[in-house]
């Protein structure tokens, strides 16, 4: 059965329009997915206690990370894209002890590092924790790490328990072009 020329053309237009819309929405979904991968999916949360020879603190137990930007074996976060990032570190000291730590940025070799934040903790009555946070502009492949002012032992740094953790967290805020 043949259709009238105008009706056939109208049906073909509807089919083509439907196919184009499906293709358009597939492309939108793909773009959204790529933006999500490049966007807010850079985050980590780690805790633990290990200080390297250059006084860099590594948080060995990774609770959450969306990319390989945080390396627990070096204690370094490496920026995957140019952008604004936000970091927080918390370190706890035993009673009658103090400690000093810094958030720094630079490159893997740590030469020419820039100090972003400095913090200290001293408690005479009980173990206590202090935290320090900062936002920072990073270029792709720049690193951020926690630096102690010297090697501290377990008698100075409060070891993990269910109520107090030494932590390092970071997240991507905004990409810069």
UniProtKB/TrEMBL annotation:
Protein name, as recorded: C1q domain-containing protein
Q: Which residues form the C1q domain?
A: 26-177
Origin species, per record, is Dreissena polymorpha (Zebra mussel)
Q: Which UniProt keywords apply?
A: Secreted
Q: What is its main location?
A: secreted
Please, which domain of life does this record's source organism belong to?
A: Eukaryota
Record's GO cellular component terms: collagen trimer
Q: Which InterPro entries match?
A: C1q_dom, Collagen/C1q_domain, Tumour_necrosis_fac-like_dom
- Pfam families for the chain: C1q
Sorted alphabetically, which PROSITE patterns does this protein's record hold?
Answer: C1Q
Could you confirm whether the keyword Secreted appears in this record? Answer: yes
Any idea where this protein resides?
Secreted
In the UniProt record, does the keyword Secreted occur? yes
């Amino acid at each position: 059965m043949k259709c009238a020329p105008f009706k056939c053309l109208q049906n073909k237009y509807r089919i083509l329009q439907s196919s184009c819309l499906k293709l358009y929405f597939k492309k939108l979904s793909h773009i959204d997915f790529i933006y999500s991968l490049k966007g807010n999916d850079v985050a980590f949360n780690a805790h633990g206690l290990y200080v390297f020879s250059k006084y860099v603190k590594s948080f060995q137990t990774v609770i959450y990370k969306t990319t390989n930007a945080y390396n627990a074996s070096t204690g370094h976060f490496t920026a995957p894209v140019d952008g604004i990032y936000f970091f927080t570190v918390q370190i706890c000291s035993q009673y009658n002890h103090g400690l000093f730590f810094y958030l720094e940025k630079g490159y893997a070799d740590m030469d020419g590092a820039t100090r972003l934040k400095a913090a200290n903790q001293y408690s005479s009555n009980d173990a206590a924790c202090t935290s320090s946070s900062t936002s920072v502009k990073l270029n792709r492949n720049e690193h951020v790490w926690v630096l102690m002012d010297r090697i501290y032992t377990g008698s100075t740094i409060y070891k993990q328990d269910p109520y107090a953790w030494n932590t390092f967290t970071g997240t991507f805020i905004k990409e810069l072009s």
